[in-house]
């Protein structure tokens, strides 16, 4: 298997990116398109998904809540229409809630698992036939799931989030084992302290931002584009022999913890 041509690392490919209206998802959708892919950019109807990519070439916005019962079939069908098949699935949509276990509600727990794990599982399951079809023709296809460094660690008040991200890692490794024989790789991203919509409330506080920046070996917070570049690596042809892997992209945050 050879790497993609110089015209773009994802030239001619079709990708699904969920949670694409902002943060890591938006940056990844834009980078994928810049690298030549047709991108189905998915996010909730209440998000700015239908306007954020108004001037973007090769990005097709799709307003759908990934937790809806019919969402997986509709998303995969839309990707097939947009790009003629499916090469890459990036499950990035996610939610988080912080509260100590004794105050963590059933609703908060269930919501984090519904979005972070169940929706990703259902979309992976729906996408497998399309990915297998493309892999048979090209020799490869990709799934990348967003986990977190909390898939290997924990923190106070994050029981639901941490448990859900451990589940994302387990799902990814199992899928990698099951799908490898068809040339489909499955990996998961472990972001550290990243400036996104999910973390904005905390990192708008200069003191909190400085503390977390100092923790990282690179002495800064991560950006959505930092994460997008890591996802691009896993989605590219160069990653043909990488599967079942959790790629830590944290600027060295976890080296001392």
Description of the structure:
- By secondary structure, this protein is an alpha/beta fold.
- It has a single domain, classed as Rossmann fold.
- 42% of the residues lie in helices and 15% in strands.
- The chain is built from 8 helices and 7 strands; from the N terminus they run βαβαβαβαβαβαααβ.
- The chain has a 7-stranded parallel beta sheet with strand order 3-2-1-4-5-6-7, with helices on both faces.
- Strand 4, helix 4 and strand 5 form a beta-alpha-beta unit.
- The longest helix is centred in the middle third of the chain and has 33 residues.
Provide the number of structural domains: 1
- CATH class label: Alpha Beta
Q: Report the mean per-residue pLDDT as an integer.
A: 94
CATH homology superfamily: NAD(P)-binding Rossmann-like Domain
H/E element sequence: EHEHEHEHEHEHHHE
State the end-to-end distance. Answer: 38 Å
Q: Specify the biggest β-sheet.
A: 7 strands, parallel
Query: SS-based structural class?
Result: alpha/beta
* Number of helices in the DSSP assignment: 8
Given as residue ranges, the uncertain stretches (5+ residues, pLDDT < 50) are 1-5
Strand arrangement across the biggest beta sheet: 3-2-1-4-5-6-7
What oligomeric state best describes the polypeptide chains here?
Answer: single chain
């Amino acid at each position: 298997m050879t790497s993609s041509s110089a015209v773009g690392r994802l030239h001619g490919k079709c990708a699904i990116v969920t949670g694409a209206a902002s943060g890591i998802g938006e940056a990844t959708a834009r980078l994928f398109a810049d690298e030549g892919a047709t991108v189905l950019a998915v996010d909730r109807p209440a998000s700015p998904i239908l306007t954020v990519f108004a001037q973007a070439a090769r990005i097709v916005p799709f307003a759908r809540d990934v937790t809806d019962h019919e969402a997986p079939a509709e998303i995969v069908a839309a990707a097939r229409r947009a790009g003629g098949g499916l090469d890459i699935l990036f499950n990035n949509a996610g939610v988080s809630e912080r509260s100590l276990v004794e105050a963590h509600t059933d609703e908060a727990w269930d919501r984090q698992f519904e979005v972070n794990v169940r929706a990703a599982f259902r979309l992976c399951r729906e996408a497998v036939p399309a990915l297998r079809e493309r892999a048979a023709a090209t020799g490869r296809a990709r799934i990348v799931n967003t986990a977190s460094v909390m898939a290997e660690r924990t923190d106070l008040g994050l029981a639901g989030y941490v448990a859900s991200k451990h589940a994302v890692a387990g799902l990814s490794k199992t899928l990698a084992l099951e799908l490898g024989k068809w040339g489909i790789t499955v990996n998961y991203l472990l972001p550290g302290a990243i400036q996104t919509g999910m973390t904005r409330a905390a990192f708008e506080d200069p003191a909190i931002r400085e503390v977390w920046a100092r923790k990282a070996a690179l002495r800064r917070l991560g950006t959505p584009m930092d994460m997008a570049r890591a996802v691009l690596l896993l989605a590219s042809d160069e990653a043909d022999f990488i599967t079942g892997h959790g790629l830590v992209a944290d600027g060295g945050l976890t080296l001392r913890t």
